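The step that takes the researchers longest sounds almost clerical: writing a folded protein down as plain text. The outcome of that step, for a single protein, is printed below.
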Amino acid sequence: MLMAGQTGDVLLEGSLPAGRPLKIVPFAQLAALRPWAEEWDRLARGVPFRTWAWQSAWWRHYGAPEPPEKTQARSAGEPQLASTRSDSSAALCVLGVFAPEAGLVGLLPLYRQKTWARGRALRFLASGEVCSEYLSVLCEPEWETAVANALAAWLAQANEARPDAGGLRWDTLELVAVGEQDQAVARLVAALESLGHAVHRRPGPPCWRIALAGTWDDFLRPLSRNRRRKLRLLERKFVEGRVQAVAIDRREEILPAISCLIDFQRDRRRRLAQATCFDSARFVAFLHDAAIAMYDARRLALLVIEQGGSPLAVELAFRGPDRLYAYQAGINGMRLNESPGHLGTYAMVRHALEHGFEMLDLLRGDEPYKADWEARPHPTLEFRVAACRPAARLRHMLWRTAAAVKGWCRRRHSYAR
């Protein structure tokens, strides 16, 4: 049952295990969510890309403009980056799930964007060129079924209601970068499917993880003799002091290190004649702000690998409860003979081991170096859900046809080679 809340929010009565109602509240502005930032992080369960710091930074740069709000002052020397807001077609739509006595028990961080081809598309916050990983419905495991069912019912009913009655018109729900074992998203999609929505599932690019346990010697022990020898050569450079890994631990040092990473990336891609997200002013501004926000949240791990006081590589990672997430790296293209990429990965593995992490997650992408470091692929999934309206179903059918044609063309090109 849809009903209007006192503040104009839309609430939905759903079912709890004990039979009491859940309430869904859609948030349309970031400022309204700020009081819930601590609860947001609790529900993110340690995954950096789900946290308030990361996703609110993303919306500030990729979302529609909002009324100015008081933000934390920058330290002296930190640049004031130009506004990089997207156009106003993006609208925030974060669904908060509230339970009596328990308070906020779930969040579905979405935004809606209108396009000619896809109509009104609901997508995860922090998706797109930022390449966030492990996006999900945010809730504790014991609430997954109740939260998923309530969210599905709200999405189905709100799409049918008039806007002045709290309706939210949408044509597609696009959920990407979902871990294969993510039960919260799986339950949400299954609930929508049971309500008659058309669902398309497909595999996404795998995330690559290096399992860590014990010491550096424990990590080396199962490797081949040749691989151990190569890693010992890298180790010797650090032990003898020819190369240093400098962990950035002061706020004023963050932006210069990030700027160095960006410069390395841009130079490297120009040499390879490749386009990159680092050509996007919006992404660069986001990365600066997100790095500061993650530092303030005590989630940043930023290493500069130097030789003779000159940077060879920069490694940007984020801390989770049990793993280190290696997000971006830049290498000095003028010093490739020094193997800056391998030195950077070595430094990250050692940093992860020294800080007790069980895993170094290298995230999506099938770069060859990942297998060289004994990383193993872990599948991700992508979901596309069509609303129960003829126009939305037609768009969904056309999209599936186009996707099938593209897949056929790629396979034919691969066979021809």
